[in-house]
Amino acid sequence: MHARREQGFTLLELLIVIAIIAILSVILVIVINPAETLKKSRDAQRISDLNTMKTALGIYITSTATPDLDASVSNFCLGTGITTAQIGYSAEIADTTCAVNVVEGNDITSGTTFNASDMCRYVGTTGAAAIDGTGWVPVNLGGLVGGSPISNLPLDPVNTVATAGTPTSTDLVYRYACQNAAAGNKPSYVFEFNAQLESAAYTSDDNRKTKDGGDNDNYYEVGSSLRLIGTGTNF
Q1: DSSP line for 151-217
Q2: Which terminus of the chain, N or C, has fewer Cβ atoms within 10 Å?
Q3: Which residues are within 8 A (CB) of 152 and not within 5 positions of it... i.e. 6 or more apart?
Q4: HSE of 117 in the Cβ direction (CA atoms, 13 Å)?
């Protein structure tokens, strides 16, 4: 009686299996698109962060008898008697002022402006997330009775400005503007946060920048007034 010979895969069969696996791997990478997945994940974080800040400042305003949306920075906010105002950035700006003017929205007090002489707020990297009014959002959330609703200020997942002193809409940073007591029919104690989104899922398939109710389709806008910072791409 002859012993049965055990047979393995031939070289050709192994090559065919390897080729199939390689093709399936390529298809899987195309379908998953890891770069787009990462962008979408960062965008989801941005949307969550800005809504967190909206809630935190809302709690601050309703829990404070005399709210001050620029508690630690003189004339940061728009408002009555303020001729120039600033924009806060979650990323460190290399210059204390930016090189361009920024269009004002329709909700600001007449006569105030974001101009190149006093537009950007500089905050060092190590203190940007502070909630005591010294961070990139100059509101003392830590002074609330019962404590701050957040432990630190969120920063953009990328959080960089490509050109020092001249941030634009392509920079992946958070932006903050505010208005304290206002004159006439302009709203008082309101604020606006802006962010840039980068994924196709949130800029094409479901364009959050055009659906947020704001006045600038170049940014994702959140806040109690979406008409503080106006149109444009130069901030």
Answers
A1: SS----SS---SSTT---TTS---EEEEE-S--TTS-SSEEEEEE----HIIIIIT-HHHHSS-S-T
A2: N
A3: 129, 130, 131, 135
A4: 5
User: pLDDT tens across 138-189, in order?
Assistant: 999 998 988 999 999 999 999 999 998 899 999 999 999 999 998 889 999 9
Q: How confident is the model over 52-101, as pLDDT tens digits? A: 999 999 999 999 988 999 987 888 998 877 778 899 999 988 887 888 89
Beta-strand runs (E) in the chain: 87-89, 120-121, 175-179, 190-195, 220-223
Dihedral, CA of residue 21, residue 26, residue 29 and residue 31, to nearest 10: -100
Residue identified by tokens 């969120």 is 154
